[in-house]
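Field reference: sequence -> structure
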Amino acid sequence: MKRHLRFRWVVLFQLLFILLANSVLAQEKKYTISGVITDGNNGESLIGATVQLINTNLGTVTNTYGFYSLSAPAGSYTLRVSYIGFSNFEQEIKLTSDLKFNASLTTKAIEAQMVVISGNATKNVESTEMSRINLDIEKIKALPAFLGEVDLIKTIQLLPGVMSAGEGNNGLYVRGGGPDQNLILVDDAVVYNASHLFGFFSIFNADAVKNVELIKGGMPAQYGGRLASVLDINLKEGNSKKFQVDGGIGLIASRLTIQGPIKKDKSSFIFSGRRTYIDVLAKPFIPKTSNAFGSGYYFYDFNGKINYQFNDRNQVYLSGYYGKDKFSFVNRRSDLNFTIPWGNATVSARWNHLFSDRLFLTTSLTFSDYNFQFRSRFDQFSATFYSGIRDYTAKVAFSYFPVNKHVIKFGAIHTRHIFTPNIANARSGDAEFNLGGEDKIYGHESGVYVSDEFDLSSRIKVAAGLRLSHFIQVGPFTRYQKDLLGRTTGSVKYDDFEKVVAYTGLEPRLSVRYALRESQSLKASYTRNLQFIQLASISPLNLPTDIWIPSSELLKPQIGNQIAAGYFRNFSNNKYETSVEVYYKDLQNLIEYRNGAQPEDNLGDNVDNNLIIGSGESYGLEVFLKKVYGDFNGWIGYTLSKTTRRFDEINDGAVFAAKYDRRHDLSVALTYNLNAKWSFGSVFIFGTGARITLPVSRYYSVQEARFVDVFGPRNATTMAAYHRLDLSATYQCKTTKTVKNPETGEYEERPKKVRSNWNFSIYNLYNRRNPYFLYNDFTGTVQEGTSRVVLKQVSLFPVLPSVTWNFSF
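Structure field:
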């Protein structure tokens, strides 16, 4: 095993050496121009800005930190920098040596009110990227908001290939993958639960978010550890030009963001907070004599970030997030109450260093913590149940820009996982009980990668990468041994840092673009991913019984292989972008709880003893039409797909539809700027109904003295189709005021210090009663022969209007 592992590492580093050597040997006498592109209004770096030398085929785009590097032979050129919504910047340059050149772009007067989705108009057809979408945060804010709260996750669910599990669920189901198969990053830190209010809202405060990128396929080698997608979110760095305050007051929540320079053009900060006041609003309407007095719910979250630029080569960032939900229920009549608090915390420290005009380094240290608790009390008895996961991660990422049009990325990442699958304790009066519960599980996950993007010819562009991933579980750990009947027969104990099990695997990545014409191209990609941690879930909601666990002796790493191909085309001078993609995904080593498993089965046992292993397939077609700029813009996405699962112990081993399988999914998201005062947004969603498992019969068990339900095939029932129309209107308050000039005596229009707007939204305009879940209600009696089954539907939200006042100064 050790020789095999050593051989893989040697192969990977030899590949890196060959790529670097090839770059050096191919160099001719060229010079490099590099720098950072920023927004001239606030100093924020611009991600994906286009930098090109006019009348040549030389060009590039800025990275996550606004950095670019471009090489060309000696000579005189016109450098152009462009970003949609900003005025083009052009500068005559003379390359006789390496040149450092930074540029700040200013907002176009005419396009200032335009809302766009992408920063690079030709990227859709020119790059090797496919199954990849960037969302501008202003686009998200322009769409209708549920109860006035702008939601990133709900907007992402409008994209083709991304399914929602239905109303009141913020999970992402991307191309047949489960919610745990999405890598969600906020400034490089992993977020394990992105939901507030059991899935009704996401944890992301849009005022603090700078950029959102979703990768559904063709995953670059720098990302690993998940099978389905990457959701990479970058927070704002703070206005380095001037002090700024933004906020909003809505029906159920308010938010406030403060940002400004610490040292102008060198250092800045941003702090953003949000809190609901459902508990405060509801309290006056619950009488003190009510049995439910004392019940309530609220959530809050906080983002903070500071950065400091020491010089042109060194910049540091420190960012963090903390959010908490607290739901409590009181029944005074039965002396029962329970509380469910859960939340996330992340910290990211990053250092950007420019070794040279061609070599860029990002080093980061991150901390992630997610925990979920359930505390209950009944009379003199109380119990606590909790689970969670905590990560400590170190990462180094290099970007190398040689002079021969290659873009080489390589790096390494290591994460120390601490899993708390389930721990429970109870008390009755003065007596304390240990209900059993698995000890913490410790694991180490690491990876090294290398990738290269280059032009194979004038028409063919290739992005190839290789990632070597490794996972090891270490002690202390206790393995409970079972017989064929599931009874515990013994245990094996592992000491601190003792190896329990280890897995290693290679993950190749390949994307190819073939240019048909200037405005259209064909693309194809292949990715292989390994996932060493997974979510064991009994319920479709985020509950304490849903627990994160690692690969083990019984659970091999999940494996995903995906191939995709697509046709991409832009129309009308890049005003419209279109794409048609097909994909096929094969999934192995998926997990499910055994039939009849209960949450309490995990106590005093290993979780994986109650799980079974299976496989899955997903394939589909995605159509995407997007209008990039103009007063009227937005997108239409359609997905035709099928997702199946197979487990030997479920459905007698027959293939069955996944619970989030939807044959058809259509989303339309549009915005319209009528004038300087009014803008409008609309969202329409249609989707085939979600799948559930229902009882098909019921019988009375004399031995158990109760009715027993007999369930039909897994996920054999399809609920009614889901569809909904949301509308919004935003009114921009007057931005100027009329004042009298004391010197001239004339009246002048001057800008107001406070700028504001009113947003009016209507959720579910035509009051569609969409199914949340179905259940069988058995009426009558067996003795009288009147028993019958009635299928009933539970719906959540009727038509819901909301209003929010947003302000900035």
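Note: Residues 9-13, 17-21, 23-27, 109-119 have pLDDT under 50 and may be disordered.
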